[in-house]
Write a structure and sequence with these properties.
Blueprint (H helix, E strand, L loop, with lengths): L6 H18 L3 H7 L4 H10 L17 H14 L1 H13 L2 H6 L2 H13 L4 E4 L15 E5 L2 E12 L6 E7 L9 E7 L5 E3 L13 E12 L3 E2 L5 H37 L1 E2 L2 E2 L4 H29 L5 H25 L1 H4 L6 H9 L8 H16 L1
Parallel strand pairs: 1-4
Antiparallel strand pairs: 2-3, 3-7, 4-5, 5-8, 6-7, 9-10
Bound molecules: acetoacetyl-coenzyme A.
Length: 382
């Protein structure tokens, strides 16, 4: 019994699992080694409908529910956390902004391209001096006739090297603080938008992370997303859903680390026995498996709440906090269980440890998740 998943949800999860194991898993070491975006796999993901899973069929998507989408991120991340984040960012904060807040014209224009994978989506909130303090962004948007003119800098933008469409947050009224932030849909080839080189990261090789600069970027007012001044609320609501996706990404990494470890300790012999015979090893495996199980329930509880349209900011933050901390500790234990072999690339677990780290950082650090959770707990106690 698992939240009474429907036959459709299980079938979709199994299809994605097969694709991830048969197509992606064997390529993961090469993607990590070269740090090149695997465009052929991304194309196949598009053809399979994975890049438009929770987008309604009317806009070219598959029309799957949120739980199925989250399980797809987990399965893809089991094979490649880099492709997991490509999918999560493209959908949760690249496509959902339009689905949830877009005009009918914006939906018709952009969603079919995003859902098919012809276009990749990205989310541009973070700036050099505004990371955790998302309300402190300085990118400025000034109205000029029928347009807005954007100037400023963004950093750490996932998918930027491939993205065709950016959901960009900018200040339209500096006197209003967070209520003076507006979201814009900005196409890649807009004059004045420059996409910098991808950062050299500790992990998630193959997924791009670039700075953006806006120099007099002219955006038609019809590309405002939601209302003028609604940008901060939009960003926060998107991140509520996005954080469940990152939790699922972390879970994929954790499950792979556990599977590799459980297999390795039964093959590797020391002191005349497989490592698995040692209680010290069994205790570690038991803790790893318990964390995976606990993360599963937190993630799919939050996903179920979201799919039912219930407020789930607290649950999303709990899932992201727990699953990412669990993934980091499980990946680290996997390296430990592999001993010296764990520290070399061939055994894959060192990559999982590098990939896991960022899940504690992006879409809100785990310190920010605790703030979100605590604020809600205090609110509920009033
Ligand atoms: N949903 C809707 N509205 C929300 C909200 C939510 N979840 N959270 C806050 N708000 C609203 C508040 O109600 C408030 O509204 P009013 O002004 O109308 O009263 C407004 O937003 C401001 O709220 P706060 O005063 O609570 O804001 P704050 O400045 O204290 O910040 C924060 C709150 C939780 C710390 C927020 O800044 C935050 O989440 N920071 C982390 C940023 C982050 O996650 N960045 C990720 C970057 S994207 C990324 O990583 C993607 C990637 O590439 C992988």
């Amino acid at each position: 019994m698992d939240f009474d998943w429907t036959a459709e949800q299980l079938a979709l999860r199994d299809t994605v699992r097969r694709f991830a194991r048969e197509v992606i898993l064997q390529r993961a070491p090469e993607i990590d080694e070269t740090d090149e975006f695997p465009s052929d796999i991304a194309k196949q993901m598009g053809e399979l409908g994975l890049l438009g899973l929770p987008i309604p069929e009317a806009y070219g998507g598959v029309g799957a529910d949120f739980i199925s989408y989250v399980s797809a991120i987990e399965e893809i991340s089991y094979a490649s956390a880099a492709l997991g984040v490509v999918l999560a960012v493209h959908t949760s904060v690249g496509s959902f902004p339009i689905l949830y807040f877009g005009t009918e014209e914006q939906k018709q224009t952009y969603l079919p391209r995003l859902a098919s994978g012809e276009w990749i989506g990205a989310f541009a909130l973070t700036e050099p001096s505004a990371g955790s303090d998302a309300g402190g962004i300085r990118t400025r948007a000034v109205r000029d006739g029928e347009d807005y003119v954007l100037n400023g800098e963004k950093i750490f933008i996932t998918n930027a090297a491939q993205a065709n469409l950016f959901c960009v947050f900018a200040v339209t009224d500096p006197d209003l603080g967070k209520r003076g932030v507006t979201a814009f849909l900005v196409e890649r080839d807009t004059p004045g938008l420059a996409i910098g080189p991808s950062e050299k990261k500790m992990g998630l090789h193959g997924s791009s992370t670039c700075p953006l600069s806006f120099c007099d970027v002219r955006i038609p007012a019809k590309n405002v997303l939601g209302g003028v001044g609604d940008g901060f609320h939009i960003a926060m609501q998107l991140l509520d859903g996005g954080r469940i996706g990152i939790a699922a990404q972390a879970q994929g990494i954790a499950r792979r680390a556990l599977d590799l470890s459980a297999s390795y300790v039964q093959k590797r012999e020391q002191f005349g026995h497989p490592l698995a015979d040692l209680q010290a090893v069994q205790l570690m495996l038991a803790d790893m498996a318990t964390k995976v199980e606990a993360a599963h329930w937190l993630i799919y509880h939050a996903a179920k709440m979201k799919s039912e349209g219930l407020p789930c900011g607290k649950q999303a933050s709990m899932a992201k906090l727990f699953a990412s901390d669990a993934a980091m500790s499980i990946a680290s234990d996997a390296v430990q269980l592999h001993g010296g072999y764990g520290y070399i690339a061939e055994y894959h677990v060192e990559q999982l440890m590098r990939d896991a780290k960022v899940t504690q950082i992006y879409e809100g650090t785990n310190q920010i998740q605790r703030i979100v959770i605590a604020r809600q707990v205090l609110k509920e106690a009033k």
